[in-house]
Design goal:
Helices cover 9% and strands 30% of the residues. It has two domains: 143 residues, no CATH class; 105 residues, Elongation Factor Tu (Ef-tu), domain 3. It is elongated. The protein has 297 residues and is mainly beta.
């Protein structure tokens, strides 16, 4: 049964209604984007949806398609990117910096002449895949809460460790014990740069992680593709471009990589003489791997 606030029920009984749709996106950096389809800005001064809803945010949405068979709701959000208009909240840097990945999104109804009287949530969900074009347009997939029920949950047998992030709680290795802080020396592109590191071997930082501490990219985290391009330690290449160009002197915090193999887990001897093998989250000790299984005698 659909519940409506008393003020909303009274308003809907009128012959003329003054309704508008508002939306709020909760970005991963803690900030929010609030927008309205009304042709003037709205202010909600109290409650969970309190905030300033701007009509200047250039986004729109398609019709919502819902079913009674627990199928996932379908909705598409489109808009334009404009780095010069900071108030719109959608920039190329935000998308490349993954500030919208899985960001919660909520739409609701209210009265445009009295938005504080009542608000009725229409849909809740989160943003999925975001595509953008060279012309400055973007399209975001809106995923309903039922999308989570489509995910396969559980662990499978694997030769490799299945920790989500090296040095997380399941891994058990302390990030403070392996990380290194340094500064950018030279810059080739948004993916290539050099920095002075105490790398014990050329592949030590491969598949690692770089967190930028200062500069235009401060707060962004990027995965390392190679930590020694051309076998030169400290010559880094990232998998993806940073939102902005690095500059010499930008401070970095670098975490080495892990290929998730049992032999690598044993090699972290700073944890103990036998390495981190007790916390290995794969089955590489017991499963020989497909190449060995298929290998002829």
């Amino acid at each position: 049964m659909l519940y409506l606030p008393a003020a909303a029920s009274l308003h809907l009984e009128r012959e003329s209604r003054r309704l508008t749709v508002c939306g709020v996106v909760y970005k991963n950096d803690g900030s929010t984007i609030r927008c309205t389809q009304f042709d003037d800005d709205l202010i909600i001064s109290s409650g969970e949806l309190e905030g300033y809803y701007s009509t200047g945010v250039p986004i729109s949405s398609s019709d919502v398609k819902s079913g009674s068979d627990l199928s996932v709701d379908n909705l598409e959000i489109t808009g334009t990117l404009n780095d010069a208009l900071a108030f719109n909240g959608f920039t190329v840097a935000d998308i490349e910096g993954r500030r919208f990945d899985g960001a919660p999104f909520e739409t609701f109804l209210c009265q445009w002449d009295d938005p504080n009287a009542w608000q009725k949530t229409i849909r809740r969900g989160y943003l999925g895949e975001i595509a953008r074009t060279a012309e400055g347009a973007f399209t975001a997939e809106w995923r309903g809460l039922l999308q989570l029920m489509q995910q396969v949950i559980g662990r499978t047998y694997s030769e490799l460790c299945d920790v989500k992030r090296f040095c997380d709680a399941r891994c058990g290795i302390s990030e403070a014990d392996v990380q290194e802080e340094t500064t950018v020396a030279t810059v080739t592109s948004r993916r290539r740069f050099t920095a002075s590191v105490a790398s014990p071997e050329p592949t030590y930082y491969d598949l690692g992680e770089v967190r930028v501490l200062t500069g235009l990219n401060a707060g962004y985290v990027a995965q390392v593709k190679r930590g020694a391009v051309g076998s030169v330690p400290g010559s880094f290449e990232l998998w993806e471009n940073l939102p902005f160009a690095l500059a010499p002197g930008d401070a970095l915090r670098i975490i080495p990589g892990c290929d998730r193999r049992f032999s690598t887990c044993k090699s972290w001897t700073h944890v103990g003489p036998l390495g981190n093998y007790k916390r290995f989250r794969g089955d590489g000790f017991w499963i020989p791997g497909i190449p060995k299984i298929q290998r002829a005698p």
